[in-house]
Amino acid sequence: MNPAQSEPMVSVVIPAYNVTKTLPRLLDCLLNQTWQNLQIILIDDGSEDGTAAMAKEAAEKDPRLTVITQGNLGISYARNAGLAKCEGKYIRFIDADDTLPLDSIERMVRRAEKDGSELVIGGYDQYFGDRRSFHNLAGRDDTVPSEEMMRHLCDHANSYFYGVLWNKLFLREIVEKCGCHFQEDLTWGEDFAFVMDYFSGVNQVSFMKDSLYDYRRTANSTSIRQVLDSVKHPAENTRIKGELYWHLKNMYRKRGLYEKYKNRLWLYLFRVGLG
To answer: How far apart are CA 200 and CA 189, in angstroms?
Structure first.
């Protein structure tokens, strides 16, 4: 048996839309990860710039890469299509305009295996043009029971650190147990809703202080497009904020912690703004 195949498989889900300029860079760092036992699933969401053809050409050279094509249905549909194909013990979600260090996946998997944690959360570098800023959770590099994380989360639920997908390593068993999927009627915040649903099944969390992801903000990046769309549709924006609060509240209810933290959770609505 190939030594790499004896290690746990990690499924990597990448939604992609018109990313021919950034896709080669991402595929290069993924296919050269020090953790080789990967199932890389790229979902082309109706691109018009040759993204699908570029990805398929790469897939012909490396059988670990699978390409799914669909109409322009949106990022939640794309991620759900990828999620349905995941076979690995662990799952990572990556945006097609970003990158990650070559040892990122290995370090997160080894930490999960060592600690027995159902969730690993790492630090990240944010790039905006020539500017770079490093982010982690106050330098934390520890492993904690989930209730300790719940205490911190209720005051920081609007933090990028908790709400995004790409700085986390998920356990597929928990994804399936909790019925986690991406809510397809959300034009933004679908990642936050997914993470909150996932938290309901987590017993232990490992935090890593080092940067394990390169988040690249550009005018074309997924997060920027979603922010611009939300500004154009204020009524829809308010509806989505209510939906996200429901996911947050429901997670605390499932864990039997809602009554304990409900007053602090209400403040989430004021932090994100009601309108």
So the answer is: 17
Instruction: For 151-188, give one letter per residue: b (16+ CB within 10 A) or e.
Output: ebbbeebbeebbbbbbbbbbbbebbeebebbbbeebbb
CA neighbor of 124 nearest in space, from 168, 156, 92: 168
Q: E strand or H helix at 124, and its extent?
A: strand 119-128
Q: How far apart are CA 257 and CA 205, in angstroms?
A: 17
pLDDT by position in tens, the chain (length 275)? 454 668 999 999 999 999 999 999 999 999 999 999 999 999 999 999 999 999 999 999 999 999 999 999 999 999 999 999 999 999 999 999 999 999 999 999 999 999 999 999 999 999 998 899 999 887 889 999 999 999 999 888 888 889 999 999 999 999 999 999 999 999 999 999 999 999 999 999 999 999 999 999 876 666 555 555 656 678 888 899 999 999 999 999 999 999 999 988 888 776 665 44
- CA distance linking residue 223 with residue 190, whole number of Å: 11
Tokens linked to 262: 């409900």
Residue 39, C-beta contacts closer than 8 angstroms, at least 6 positions apart? 9, 10, 11, 12, 64, 66, 85, 86, 87, 88
CA distance 171 to 206: 13
What does the domain layout of the chain look like in residue ranges? Answer: 8-272
Total length of the chain: 275
Domain 8-272 has CATH 1.20.1070.10: no
SS3 243: helix
Compute how many other C-beta atoms are within 10 angstroms of the C-beta atom of residue 131. 8
CA angle at residue 205 from 204 to 208, to 5 degrees? Answer: 150
